[in-house]
Design goal:
3 helices; about 30% strand; five-stranded antiparallel β-sheet; alpha+beta; single chain
C-alpha cells in the first residue's frame, strides 16, 4: 500500500519513547539497509516481465522510518531484547544511556497487523527478561542512534474503531546508526502479518 505522501503518525508501539520521523541522509541510509537500489530495480524488472496490469509499487513507497529517543531528550541508547540461542528476540526495548529510562518498542503479541486483527483481546505476555543488548556487527558496541522501520505492504485493512492505520504494519525492522563506527544497520526484524 502506498504511504508515501501520507502523514501517518507513529505506531502506538512507540508510545513509551520519543519518536520523530527520520529525514534526509539518516532516513535514506536506513531504507538502503532494507531495500537497495539494486533490489528495487530487480523488483521492477520482474514486474515488467510478468506483464502485470497493476501499477508497480516500490517497497520504498510502503514504509516509514522513525527515529527513537528518550523522553529526557537524549537520542542515543541501547536496544534490548531477549537472547535465545545466540539470537536476538522480542520483546524489544529502548534503554537510554543518559537517564537509564527504558521503554517498550515492539512486542509481537501486542503490536503489528496480526496483533491488531486477532480475535482475542491483547494482553501482555510473560516473557524472559530483555537483557541482551543489540550490538554492531562492525565494532561490537551496543550504543545506537536507534530507529524503527515499519512497512505497510498489504491492502488497507478494515480498521477497528479507535485505531489508526499506523498500527497495522506488516513488518518491523529495528536498528539505527552505530555510535562507535557510524555504520547503519537494521539488526532485528519481524513479520507481523
Amino acid at each position: 500500500m502506498r504511504i508515501t505522501g501520507i502523514e501517518i503518525p507513529p505506531p502506538s508501539c512507540l508510545a513509551s519513547v520519543r519518536v520523530t520521523r527520520a529525514e534526509g541522509d539518516f532516513r535514506q541510509k536506513l531504507i538502503e539497509q532494507f531495500v537497495s537500489d539494486v533490489d528495487d530495480a530487480e523488483s521492477l524488472e520482474r514486474h515488467r516481465k510478468l506483464e502485470r496490469t497493476e501499477e508497480w509499487l516500490s517497497t520504498r513507497d510502503e514504509l516509514e522510518v522513525w527515529r527513537v529517543g528518550c523522553p529526557c531528550g537524549d537520542e542515543k541508547g541501547k536496544i534490548f531484547g531477549v537472547g535465545v540461542d545466540q539470537e536476538f528476540s522480542a520483546p524489544v526495548f529502548y534503554g537510554c544511556t543518559k537517564c537509564a529510562a527504558r521503554g517498550l518498542i515492539f512486542d509481537p503479541s501486542l503490536h503489528g497487523y496480526n496483533a491488531e486483527t486477532a480475535k482475542k483481546k491483547k494482553k501482555v505476555r510473560a516473557a524472559p527478561p530483555a537483557k541482551a543488548a543489540l550490538h554492531c556487527r562492525g565494532c561490537k558496541t551496543t550504543v545506537w542512534r536507534p530507529a524503527v522501520v515499519v512497512t505497510y505492504q498489504g491492502e488497507p485493512p478494515n480498521i477497528a474503531p479507535g485505531r489508526g492505520l499506523q498500527d497495522y504494519f506488516d513488518a518491523i525492522l529495528i536498528g539505527g546508526q552505530c555510535i562507535g563506527c557510524s555504520n547503519f544497520a537494521l539488526r532485528y526484524s519481524a513479520e507481523c502479518a
